Structure formats: structure tokens, C-alpha cells
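Job type: complex structure
Entries:
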Amino acid sequence: SAVISQKPSRDICQRGTSLTIQCQVDSQVTMMFWYRQQPGQSLTLIATANQGSEATYESGFVIDKFPISRPNLTFSTLTVSNMSPEDSSIYLCSARLAGYNEQFFGPGTRLTVL
Amino acid sequence: QKEVEQDPGPLSVPEGAIVSLNCTYSNSAFQYFMWYRQYSRKGPELLMYTYSSGNKEDGRFTAQVDKSSKYISLFIRDSQPSDSATYLCAMNPGNTGKLIFGQGTTLQVKP
């Protein structure tokens, strides 16, 4: 397995502001992903974070709202921009390790937008 | 129709019971199947990973895949109160790494 850390673990933000979430993996990584888990719901993939290039977004998610960076193999950031209360969710990063098909998840960032 | 269907429960069982959790799927391209356990306010923890039809056992947990029926199961033997959590099935076709999750089943094991 891998140790995946996220910062911050939680935050309360005002409408219209932006928050950047960091994800760090302690092992060799081939792929990194960002998911959203809305209250009482399952996980939905936002995008695949690509090293050194633009992320690949899923239907319903756009770069202007959720810009993602991945400057190196083991680190990625997700920004939630111009937030509204509907963005209140848990945001999770995951990683697929070199030589494995399994995905491991970070502890999540619990975001509340007022 | 969702690609992955999972009964959300809640499921309540007495301690020591055998628990059966199930998911069905519609996409025959799915090759890899995972079960995650998620405790309240925590990230999902990988429990089991399989990629072929048949059974895989790990301690009290057994994962079963039936590709012909597009049906996967997770069995928990001798269930414990510490097994109380939400269990999520997930699967992907392998080439993209993208995981499609079921809705999750909430399990409560009563002492």
C-alpha cells in the first residue's frame, strides 16, 4: 500500500472564494486521481491528474472550476474555485502505484461552503 | 441505469453473523474489481482486489466475481462490531485507471 496525505483535512470557506487542496504520496505512482464525495453519496471521479500537462476531466467537471496541477509524480493539487454551498463535499485524492492496478485513497478533505 | 448497482442498505446484523454484500454491473469491459471499507469521516480503505472470476480469500473476507452474470460479492465471516462501516464496490476496465463506484452499503454489526 502507500501513505497518501492531504492538506487541509477540513476547511470552512465563504461563498465566492477558492481553496487549494494538496495531495502527497510516499511511493512511486503511475496515476493520480481526484474524486468528490457529496454528503451521503458515493465517490465520483472529477479528473485524472497528468504529470506536467493538463488534467483529463470527467463529464460535468471543467478546468475553470476545478484546476488541477501535478508538477511531479507524487504530488498534486486540486483547486475548488468560486465556491458555492453546492461544493460542500469531501474531496479525495487517490493513487495507482507502479506495478499495481489497485488504487489507494487519501483521508479526504472535508469542505464546507457557507 | 447506473453502470454499477449496489444496495445502499442499511444492513444490520448481530455479531458473529455472515454478511453478504453485492454489486451488479452492466459494462462487460470491467476487468478489475475492488472492495473498499469507509469508516465515518475517513477515506476509503482498500479491502480486496480481484481481476478474474472466482473467489479470493483474505482472513475473514472473501471476494467473489462472476463475470458471466456481471455480479460481485463480498462475504464477511464472524462479523465484528468493528466491521461497522460503509462498503463500496468499485471497478474499472483497466486501461484508464478510472474507478466506477457503487452507491455503498452501510453495515452495522450489533454486539
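Summary: The CA atoms of residues 22 and 72 of chain B lie 6 Å apart. The longest strand of chain B covers residues 85-92.
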